[in-house]
Design goal:
- By secondary structure, the protein is an all-alpha fold.
- The protein has one domain: Hydantoin permease.
- 75% of the residues lie in helices and 1% in strands.
- The N and C termini lie far apart (53 Å).
- 51% of the residues are buried.
- Bound molecules: phenylalanine (PHE).
- Phenylalanine binds next to helix 1, helix 2, helix 11 and helix 15.
């Protein structure tokens, strides 16, 4: 008997899963930094405009490819009748294959902080007096980062083993609403703190004086949107392959963009005012307070802020790291699913075996990044620690994959095929001309611009450090 492909139980479940993938560390630790750096409201407006045009088009494309092919990214391009383009499926699989292990290492860091704040909130354990020293000691510890990564990975695999409907769907049903509730609660709390008004103005009011270079604002917003929507990682193709034919692809895409952008903007409300008021983190940069991005913001600056919140600090820290943990878990789940589905589709094996293979790979390669700041700190790739090296290379590979997908759809497959897939639900598709122009011309050009800026950033050419 031929096994039928797994499917979401409905369009809400699909949107929830895709949004859960999109909402991740990028929303929390990079969007606020970019908004603070590039003119507040100006950046937010540019980001919104780009997500609703370019982001929408790329999302529709990936979801429709998956739904048409009923295969994950690895084998989907062959099913579309262009076996020569199978290499694109391989590239789209390589991206999560290399991102997942180090994403789980960062997930492990979040687990460590979650545990630490649970300890301070519930058991009254004194928080680390010097958050920077705590972080540096933790990532350099002989075993702790590896063990934390294994805990995080085990949680993700436990969900994946249960399957699409019973695992991913059910987990999202709990994790996503909880994440939203915590983000809204924290934003409201922050807004009530004395001095928050100035921080909110700093975040929202357009500041043209800090936007000397329009190109940087647009490229920054575009790169962020890309990562934030989980594009070019095979995820949306795989998730699309579980979508029912009668559900609308464009409507789902708009909802995913809206949910992801909502959480990105909300993170700014949560983070910018407290950093501006309490830590006044960085030195003023061009007249604006500089907020750091990434691990520095999450594991050093914010813990410092929590210390200054007095008795509320441990609780706020606990809620915040629970939120971060949920965001990281759902993103990691989506990457793992894209890989497990690829192994299942390609080798026609059972889900259990595929999970074992992908789990072993993740732990093995993750170990290289987990030990990379401690016991294996002499291991460098192009003078970068392993985690930073994988991150940089994937930042370059993703735009290549995305540009190739656009070229494939625009010039080889024909945009009509994607539009036809969108019409399967019986709706009228009103954006045909817009879609064709975007996928053939605008998207490839913009994506190549991101690629060039990424390469310049990594080679430290020009002032393109976004
Ligand atoms: N989109 C996620 C974020 O904003 C990140 C992510 C990357 C998710 C890769 C899945 C795969 O953080």
């Amino acid at each position: 008997m031929k096994k039928t492909r797994a499917s979401w139980s409905g369009s809400v479940a699909f949107v929830l899963a895709a949004a859960a993938s999109a909402i991740g560390l990028g929303n929390l630790w990079r969007f606020p930094y970019l908004a603070a750096r590039y003119g507040g409201g100006i950046f937010i407006a540019v980001y919104l405009a780009l997500s609703l045009t370019l982001g929408f088009v790329l999302l529709v494309t990936e979801i429709a490819i998956g739904r048409y092919a009923r295969q994950s990214q690895l084998t989907a391009f062959g099913v579309l009748g262009h076996p020569k383009w199978n290499f694109l499926g391989v590239l789209a699989t390589v991206v999560p294959l290399f991102i997942l292990p180090y994403y789980n290492v960062i997930g492990g860091w979040v687990v460590r902080y979650f545990a630490a704040y649970a300890g301070t909130a519930f058991a009254g354990i004194a928080p680390a007096a010097d958050p920077k020293a705590f972080f540096d000691a933790f990532v350099a510890a002989p075993w702790a980062p590896f063990v934390a990564m294994c805990v995080f990975t085990a949680a993700v695999l436990a969900v994946i083993v249960l399957g699409v409907k019973n695992g991913i769907e059910k987990a999202n049903l709990v994790l996503v609403p909880a994440l939203l509730a915590m983000a809204i609660a924290l934003s409201v709390y922050v807004a009530t703190l004395p001095g928050a008004g100035a921080g909110i103005r700093f975040y929202l009011v357009p500041d043209f004086s800090s936007c000397d270079n329009v190109g940087k604002v647009v490229l920054g917003a575009m790169g962020q949107m890309f990562y934030s929507l989980s594009l070019a990682m095979g995820i949306m193709i795989t998730y699309g392959s579980y979508m029912r034919r009668r559900d609308s692809v464009p409507k789902a895409a708009v909802r995913i963009v809206a949910a992801d952008t909502f959480v990105a903007i909300l993170s700014g409300f949560m983070i910018i005012p407290v950093v501006v008021v309490f830590a006044s983190a960085g030195a003023a940069e061009g007249g604006r307070v500089a907020i750091d991005a990434g691990p520095g913001l999450m594991f050093e600056t914010l813990p410092k802020v929590f210390l200054s919140l007095g008795a509320a600090g441990p609780w706020i820290g606990f809620v915040f790291f629970t939120l971060v943990l949920f965001a990281a878990l759902t993103s990691s789940i989506s990457m793992t699913e894209a890989l497990v589905a690829a192994v299942c589709d390609f080798f026609k094996t059972s889900r259990g075996k595929s999970v074992a293979v992908i789990g072993a790979w993740t732990v093995a390669l993750g170990a290289v990044s987990a030990f990379g700041y401690g016991r294996w700190s002499s291991l460098k790739f192009f003078s970068l620690p392993p985690l930073d090296f994988f991150d940089t290379s994937m930042n370059i590979l993703t735009p290549i994959v995305a540009a190739l997908i656009c070229v494939f759809v625009g010039w080889i497959l024909s945009p009509k095929r994607i539009l036809a897939e969108c019409q399967r639900s019986g709706e009228r598709v009103g954006f045909r001309l817009f879609y064709v122009i975007m996928v053939r011309f605008v998207a490839p050009i913009l994506i190549v611009a991101i690629l060039i800026s990424e390469v310049c950033r990594c080679l430290k050419i020009g002032g393109w450090s976004i």
